[in-house]
Amino acid sequence: MTPPTAWQWLSLAGIIWLQSVNGTNTNFPAYSSQLKQLLSLSQLQLNNLAFASDAGKLFGFFSGIAAFYLPLWLVLLIGSTLGLIGYGVQYLFITNYISSLSYTHIFLLTVVAGNSICWINTVCYVVTIRNFPSDRQVAVGLSTSYQGLSAKIYTVIVDALFVSFPEKKAKAYLLFNHLTISATGIYAVITSLRSMPSGLPPFGNAIGVLVFLLAPLVIPLAVKIREILAAKSWINREAKVYNFTVEENVNVERMGMG
Questions:
Q1: Domain range spanning residue 84?
Q2: d(CA 191, CA 216)
Q3: What is the count of structural domains for the chain?
Q4: Which positions make up the signal peptide (predicted)?
Q5: Contacts within 8 Å (CB) and 24+ apart, 242-249
């Protein structure tokens, strides 16, 4: 069995990044209070909105069916579009660009946004299983575990960019939700933030996130370098064998002539 290539490792790094920014439902508390204020919601209605995101995942089987009949890039595009609509329209509502949304509209938009996560997850699972067939359980489990970091990633970015404008943070969360989920085809990576020091300023935390985003690229880069060195070593070995064979033939001819 051949070991994974650099491109396979790079695909896993990209999938980890997709999963780490795909848990957009985890930052609902960041803007829920503003929705509650704009719509004059009761606590029960607000709780139902929190449930709506999970309710959208009940229709996740549609993404699985689509993956059988559609190319994966189209499945990813559908998921990105659903997330763009679900979170984007809510962002326009919070920023007063849309003023006529009802509670039912927000509920349905949250369901759509929650369902978008399933489409992106489906693409991640299919690509991981195809690239790591013998270790698919470990690879899928590794990529899925990073989805829990979404809330921390969004928090660090928003705190760094809006440190002087705390009143705009709720809008910023929705803005990042629909922008990042519409750009999930970009390959990037992230690893654990557990070692992040808590005393750093917001901008320092953002730099730390960027460093951790790039860190797992070491694996595919190292594999690629090893492949290049192995190829060069093989070429040099073939050249030495060829030169040795030529010299041996020349010596034999000289001995025959002598």
A1: 6-219
A2: 7
A3: 1
A4: 1-23
A5: none
